[in-house]
């Protein structure tokens, strides 16, 4: 299924209130999609609970919530979680789950530009014929600030393809030479190669956190899912999906 659609994982055949008790409704950032897909079956086998997830960028999720959308649990940036908690939409006891860096990818087999320094990144962005990044995602908003900071915003925007889904798919189709997004959102895309993270001087590390809606129909199930995702043993899964444990000082090898 494509990002932004509801994904129903395997679940026991139940009805009525039993169905409510064994299903969890999740509104999640695209950055955690790979992890949630990976752990769904194990979580169901261990707990008897299953979940369906809707994947959006954090800002798109906030827009939906402002329009009245609710769920049992949401996984979005820490800043957004704090805002929802202040507004009384999310209950207390929120928890940080993972962090992600912003990176650049190219179509599989294409030459990888050197982006290890700010000067090299600027040169690569000016040299590329086309580039894709997101409009509302945390990575796209930060990248827009980066190109302003580098003084190349007009040049980059003239050759930009802006999307609110997996921008790596645009590069995989050959419609752009580069794609910029959270590394965890680039890695699931077939047909692209990761070049690497943005240099530290212009990098933004986003922390993703989970919280339970005050209007949750299944807060108990939501709490179990969050606890499962927060287990230290899940670190290897995070790393395999382009994420890092919270507080990691440098990208994993």
Topology:
Elements: E1 6-8, H1 16-22, E2 23-29, H2 33-47, E3 50-56, H3 58-66, E4 73-77, H4 78-86, E5 95-100, E6 102-107, H5 118-127, E7 131-134, H6 138-149, H7 153-158, E8 160-163, H8 168-172, E9 178-182, H9 183-186, E10 192-197, E11 206-212, H10 219-229, H11 235-240
Parallel strand pairs: 2-3, 2-4, 7-8, 7-9
Antiparallel strand pairs: 1-3, 4-11, 5-11, 6-9, 6-10
Structure description:
- With 253 residues, the protein is an alpha/beta fold.
- The protein has two domains: 6-100 and 207-240, 3-Layer(aba) Sandwich (D-Maltodextrin-Binding Protein, domain 2), CATH 3.40.190.10; 102-202, Periplasmic binding protein-like II (D-Maltodextrin-Binding Protein, domain 2), CATH 3.40.190.
- The protein contains eleven helices and eleven strands.
- The strands form two sheets. It has a six-stranded mixed β-sheet. It has a five-stranded mixed β-sheet with strand order 8-7-9-6-10.
- Helix 2 (33-47) links the parallel strand 2 and strand 3 (50-56).
- The longest helix has 15 residues, at 33-47.
- It is elongated and about 55 Å long.
- The two termini are 30 Å apart.
- Mean pLDDT is 89; it is low at 1-19.
As for the number of domains, it is 2
Q: What Rg is obtained from the alpha carbons, in whole angstroms?
A: 19 Å
**What is the H-and-E element order?**
EHEHEHEHEEHEHHEHEHEEHH
Low-confidence stretches: 1-19
Largest beta sheet: what is the strand line-up? 1-3-2-4-11-5
Please report the total strand number as a whole number. Answer: 11
The helix tally amounts to 11
Decide which structural class fits the backbone: alpha/beta
CATH topology of the largest domain: D-Maltodextrin-Binding Protein, domain 2
Q: Classify the oligomer.
A: single chain
CATH class of the largest domain: Alpha Beta
- The first-to-last residue Cα distance is 30 Å
Largest β-sheet summary: 6 strands, mixed
- Examine the secondary-structure arrangement and name the CATH architecture of the largest domain: 3-Layer(aba) Sandwich
As a percent range, the share of helical residues equals 25-40%
Shape: elongated
CATH homologous superfamily grouping of the largest domain: Periplasmic binding protein-like II
Beta-strand residue fraction: 15-25%
Average pLDDT taken over every residue: 89
